[in-house]
TrEMBL record:
Transmembrane segments: none
InterPro entries assigned to the protein according to its UniProt record, in alphabetical order: CPT, P-loop_NTPase
Catalytic residue positions: D34
UniProt organism field: Lentzea alba
GO molecular function: ATP binding; transferase activity
Protein name: AAA family ATPase
Residues involved in ATP binding: G7, T8, S9, S10, S11, G12, K13, S14
Length: 179
């Protein structure tokens, strides 16, 4: 099982993922694109020129998608914390995760609250969430959706768990592949 959380920066994906690890009945791994980004020497990477940096980041994200697939193929249950802020990312995930059971969860949050969180965190580029806001949910299809403007991370995790018990067999990823 792969529970795939998609939402803007500061929408609360990581917080929900950590709660899911506590409330789910089996032992999931939380695989996060942020964790992958922290594995490289960030200060040296920032010295790359723009085309090199874009190529580097694309390889990292493609590697992340394949690592998720590899963990699931080895029999592990996984919570993925990622964002479809470029169309190729969703397309790549649809291809790479084919044959695996993916439940796609949209993590929503009001723009006002996103901007408040972004400012409070201080370690995120101001305006990043607003830029992603118009893009990450553009494919418009989920198995389940949560709103972190009105629910706590624990409430979202509990709602996702409850959904898993009644989820229809046809997944959003199956429908998106047919498009
Ligand atoms: N449901 C919530 N209600 C209120 N605050 C929240 C909620 N979920 C997360 N937050 C707060 O918002 C901030 C961002 O949360 P989190 O790191 O989980 O988001 P994220 O989507 O993983 O962000 P990023 O992609 O930038 O890493 C944190 O300060 C967190 O405490």
């Amino acid at each position: 099982m792969i529970i795939f959380l998609n939402g803007t920066s500061s929408s609360g994906k990581s917080s929900i993922a950590e709660e899911l690890l506590q409330v789910l009945d089996t032992w999931y791994f939380h695989l996060s694109i942020d964790a992958f980004a922290s594995m490289c020497p960030g200060d040296r990477v920032m010295e790359l020129d723009e085309p090199e940096l874009n190529a580097f980041l694309r390889r990292m994200r493609a590697g992340f998608h394949r690592s998720v697939a590899a963990m699931a193929q080895a029999g592990n249950d996984v919570v993925v914390d990622h964002l479809f802020s470029e169309p190729w990312r969703l397309q790549d995930c649809l291809e790479v995760l084919e044959g695996l059971d993916v439940v796609l969860v949209g993590v929503h949050c009001s723009l006002e609250e996103l901007e408040r969180r972004e400012q409070a965190r201080g370690d995120r580029t101001p305006g990043m969430a607003a830029k992603q806001f118009q893009v990450v949910h553009q494919h418009g299809l989920y198995d389940f959706e949560v709103d972190t403007s009105t629910s706590s991370p624990r409430e979202c995790a509990e709602a996702i768990k409850e959904f898993l018990g009644r989820a229809p067999a046809l997944r959003a990823f199956d429908e998106l592949r047919l498009r």
